[in-house]
Each structure stands twice: as C-alpha cells, then as structure tokens.
C-alpha cells in the first residue's frame, strides 16, 4: 500500500519567460511503513516535492494522494485540518516558537487539532525522543540536537501516518545527526509510520529503505538502500 502517491505531478513557478518547472510530470508512490530519502542537486525540486507531497503547496497539475485521500479534493480549510491531523512536518530550521516551553511547543499540534493533551501521550513521545527533564525549558536554552528532537516530538505527537522531514540533520553535527536518524527510523519500525526525508547527506541516506533521486524536477532513479535491513 502506498502511503503517499504522486501521479503526473507538475509544479511550475512564475509564468511566461520566467516560468520554472520545479517538478516535471512526477509519478511515484511511497510504501506505507517505509523510510525514504529524497536526494538530488540544489534546485532539482526536492523542497517542492516535499511541499507538494505534504499538502503544504498545491501542484500545477497532477494528483497527490495521502492515505487514500486526494489532496486536490480538499479546500484550504479542509487541507489545513488534514495536515494538522494526518501529517507531521519537520523543518530544517526547527521552526520552534521561542516564547513557548518545550512542552508547549510539542503539544501545539494537539491544541491546533482540538485534540486533548493527555499526560501519557506527552510523556511517551518526550521519553521516546530523549527530552524527559527538559519540558520546562525554552528553545534558546537547548542545543541544536535537542531543538531538533523537540521538532520531531512535535511532528510525532499527533501520531501522523506520514512524517515529512526537510533536511532534518542539515544543521547538526554528525553524532547528533545519527541520533536524529535513529529516532526517525524508530518511528518507522516501532510506530509503523512512514517517513519521507529530504537530505543532501549520503550518510543520512544510509539509514533509509530507499533513495529517490531527483534531477531537474524529474525522478531519475529510485534505489533500495542496500546496507539497511529492510523492515516490511
Ligand atoms: P531543491 O529543494 O532541490 O533545492 P526546490 O524545490 O527548492 O529545489 O526548487 C526547484 C526549482 O524551483 C529551482 O529552480 C528553484 O529556484 C525554483 N523555485 C522553488 N521555489 C520557488 C518559488 N517559490 N518561486 C519561484 N521559483 C521557485
Ligand atoms: P532548500 O533547498 O534548502 O529547502 P531553497 O533555498 O531551495 O531551500 O528554498 C528555500 C525557500 O525559498 C523555499 O520556500 C522555496 O520555495 C523558496 N525558493 C527557492 N527558490 C526560489 C526562487 N527562485 N524564487 C522564489 N522563492 C524560491
């Protein structure tokens, strides 16, 4: 079963002579319960792919289905609601709210989704990402790796079917990056979630099940990451 399926997705920015085709007729499915890396040179369409797949941006043409739902059938309000309840997104720059505590940052998606913030859920997720004891701190009082853990906990808290991560290790030192990748791997193996991650880092791709390589807005290859035991 595909957790995410793009069918003939094209995304253009601008018009006339300034038109850029960021995604060019991309058709690809991402299997439920898999960890996928999206790689490719700068400007190849990785961010656009992630944003379209996650419903943060709409394709110019083609369809995106997530968990069986055609995102094109949702209006803006419905799409926002869908993102808040069904998708987790981890940004490269963490995107934490500086005035909120760690706990308030992590539970924000629950409040946005009008869901309860029961203690067990919050405790379970914060323990899983190794943030126990830091819940009362503010982002400025955390290291980069700890901030990324908060961003991942925030993406996990609603138990989304799919977690999209844009360069989640781009700002981290190699050891911390390994910890973060192990966390994302556990979301796949232990929680049966699907993770789609944009990365520049070949070492990060080693943790995934498959690598989708983009060039000039097209999928040019799709290979299993052979060094990783496949969990299906
Ligand atoms: P990557 O993430 O691989 O660097 P992007 O998806 O950011 O690639 O960009 C793909 C192409 O689309 C690039 O040529 C980029 O300049 C262009 N692009 C991306 N976002 C916009 C935008 N908002 N407006 C115009 N062009 C854009
Ligand atoms: P990354 O590839 O590291 O994700 P980019 O530098 O490609 O980041 O893009 C950062 C932001 O700028 C994205 O929101 C993207 O849509 C936007 N962007 C990228 N290229 C252009 C462009 N040529 N014109 C306008 N916005 C762009």
TrEMBL record:
CDD domains per the UniProt record, alphabetical: ABC_MJ0796_LolCDE_FtsE
Keywords: ATP-binding, Nucleotide-binding, Transport
GO molecular function: ATP binding
InterPro entries: AAA+_ATPase, ABC_transporter-like_ATP-bd, ABC_transporter-like_CS, ABC_transpr_LolD-like, MacB-like_ATP-bd, P-loop_NTPase
Domain (ABC transporter) ranges: 4-232
Pfam families according to UniProt: ABC_tran (PF00005)
PANTHER family (UniProt xref): ABC TRANSPORTER RELATED, IMPORT ATP-BINDING PROTEIN
Name recorded for this polypeptide: ABC transporter ATP-binding protein
High-level lineage: Bacteria, Bacillati, Actinomycetota, Actinomycetes, Kitasatosporales
């Amino acid at each position: 079963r595909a957790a995410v399926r793009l069918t003939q997705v094209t995304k253009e920015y601008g018009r006339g002579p300034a038109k850029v085709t960021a995604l060019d007729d991309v058709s690809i499915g991402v299997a439920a319960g898999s960890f996928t890396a999206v790689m490719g040179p700068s400007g190849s369409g990785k961010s656009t792919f992630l944003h379209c797949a996650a419903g943060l941006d709409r394709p110019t043409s083609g369809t995106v289905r997530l968990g069986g739902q055609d995102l094109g059938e949702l209006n803006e309000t419905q799409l926002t609601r869908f993102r808040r309840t069904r998708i987790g997104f981890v940004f490269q720059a963490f995107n934490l709210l500086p005035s909120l505590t760690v706990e308030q940052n992590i539970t924000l998606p629950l409040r946005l989704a009008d869901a309860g913030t029961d203690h067990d859920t919050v405790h379970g997720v914060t323990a899983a990402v190794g943030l126990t004891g830091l819940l009362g701190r503010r982002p400025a009082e955390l290291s980069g790796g700890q901030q990324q853990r908060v961003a991942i906990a925030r993406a996990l808290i609603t138990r989304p079917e799919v977690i999209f991560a844009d360069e989640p290790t781009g700002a981290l030192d190699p050891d911390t990056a390994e910890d973060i990748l192990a966390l994302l791997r556990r979301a796949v193996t232990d929680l049966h979630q699907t993770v789609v991650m944009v990365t520049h880092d070949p070492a990060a791709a080693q943790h995934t099940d498959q690598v989708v390589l983009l060039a000039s807005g097209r999928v040019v290859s799709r290979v299993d990451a052979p060094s990783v035991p496949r969990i299906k």
